[in-house]
């Protein structure tokens, strides 16, 4: 009989897993263990270098870390595949791990803005795998286990290609900043509906100047859509809200040799004519906001599938491979 308090083996295994993860992270990053722990083990704060100084980026990722000495691997069909017969033969190699439903309910309450990653460490192979629980709840569980809230545990299927990396944490750390940007864009778009063209330009000048300085643009290296959006923003920022596309459109629609800046255009037969310069600004801003809205939708409906055992994620990887083969 033991003489003292017993520390359960599961606690020891999870502590080993947390230590494993902490040893894998850059020394500049900070992990704070949540104590007491109500579902989140680590608050990971990201840092970077600016002017040779290590500064906090204002980016956090929450981690639930689990260890196992008897990892269960297998294959599953991609979820979201119910009505796609041609892809029935696709199988995804996964790590199977059971977690308690109260943790999923906690993540669901937190919403999608703050990412919570489940990290499972296979202590026998020294490999760690991740899955974003916010996205898993949103896109996988409705297909895998729609009544999961009534259960005590749920098996999570983590694709074994989801090995942890610094880039993984950096990508998820940017999520709150992207959501903030998209929300501001939607708010400005709604505001412009009720203003004159002159007021629209005045509002957009302030808006463009502000968001141009946002740190969210450091995500460009991770997602091409944001790079394209930034390119359009940069054009407006440098050229007084006028894009080359809008200017070309106006020039081509002119029938005489007037300067496009002074030429009078009729956007609507019921309205007064508008000088080309102002009209180009209005068109450019409208196109930028439309593209920004499309980028937001793409993130929500496609990019949030990254790393999930879903058909959409599989299709995204297939497209990426095609483009890689085409341009390499």
Please characterize this protein's 3D structure.
There is one protein chain. It contains eleven helices and ten strands. Mean pLDDT is 89; it is low at 322-328. Strands 1-2-3-6-7 form a five-stranded mixed β-sheet. The longest helix has 26 residues, at 276-301. It is α+β, with helices and mostly antiparallel strands. 27% of the residues are buried. It folds into two domains: 9-162, Trna Endonuclease, Chain: A, domain 1 (3-Layer(aba) Sandwich); 175-306. It has helices at residues 9-24, 101-110, 133-139, 141-144, 166-173, 175-192, 197-211, 224-238, 244-253, 276-301, 311-327, and strands at residues 30-33, 42-50, 53-68, 72-76, 92-100, 116-122, 127-132, 153-159, 264-265, 274-275.
Number of domains: 2
Shape: elongated
Strand order of the largest sheet: 1-2-3-6-7
Named CATH architecture of the largest domain:
3-Layer(aba) Sandwich
Care to give the gist of this entry?
27% of the residues are buried. The chain is α+β, with helices and mostly antiparallel strands and 328 residues long. The chain starts with 8 loop residues before the first helix and ends with a helix.
Based on the model shown, name its key terms:
five-stranded mixed beta sheet, three-stranded antiparallel beta sheet, alpha+beta, disordered C terminus, Trna Endonuclease, Chain: A, domain 1
List the helices and strands and how they pair.
Layout: H1 9-24, E1 30-33, E2 42-50, E3 53-68, E4 72-76, E5 92-100, H2 101-110, E6 116-122, E7 127-132, H3 133-139, H4 141-144, E8 153-159, H5 166-173, H6 175-192, H7 197-211, H8 224-238, H9 244-253, E9 264-265, E10 274-275, H10 276-301, H11 311-327
Parallel strand pairs: 3-6
Antiparallel strand pairs: 1-2, 2-3, 4-5, 5-8, 6-7, 9-10
